[in-house]
Design goal:
Elements (H helix, E strand, L loop, with lengths): L7 E7 L4 E6 L4 H5 L9 H16 L4 E10 L10 E12 L2 E9 L4 E10 L1
Antiparallel strand pairs: 1-2, 2-4, 3-6, 4-5, 5-6
């Protein structure tokens, strides 16, 4: 399922810095189930957002191959923090395999650190 333009929207893209500012949609049906009255962004959605943004950055379709590490430092509530940044670091490409590290954060707080590999 593609989440872009439904679960979240891109507010700003900085290709040189490999960073995106996005706005989460607290009215999305996923938040009605996770969790009613106190919505929290599911980890699987965070992974999907990172994959979609990396696809946009590299301008090619990607599939998640493996997740080496995914640290949840704090929950992301779309009511409390509707806007976050996704910043990529150490993006590498070799023989159809893409590896990357991503951080989901605001200017003063980190929410998720992710290290994963994808295939083209």
């Amino acid at each position: 399922m593609i989440l872009k333009d439904n679960f979240y929207t891109i507010l700003r893209k900085d290709a040189d810095a490999m960073a995106y500012d996005i706005r989460l949609n607290p009215a999305h049906t996923i938040y009605q189930a996770h969790f009613p009255g106190e919505p929290v962004t599911p980890g699987v959605c965070i992974l999907q957002i990172a994959r979609e943004l990396l696809e946009d950055l590299l301008q090619r379709p990607l599939a998640v191959k493996s997740v080496k590490n995914m640290k949840f430092l704090s929950v992301i509530s779309p009511l409390v923090t509707p806007q976050v940044s996704c910043c990529f670091e150490k993006v590498g490409q070799d023989a159809g395999i893409v590896s990357a590290q991503a951080t989901i954060k605001t200017s003063d707080k980190e929410f998720v650190k992710l290290s994963f590999t994808l295939t083209a």
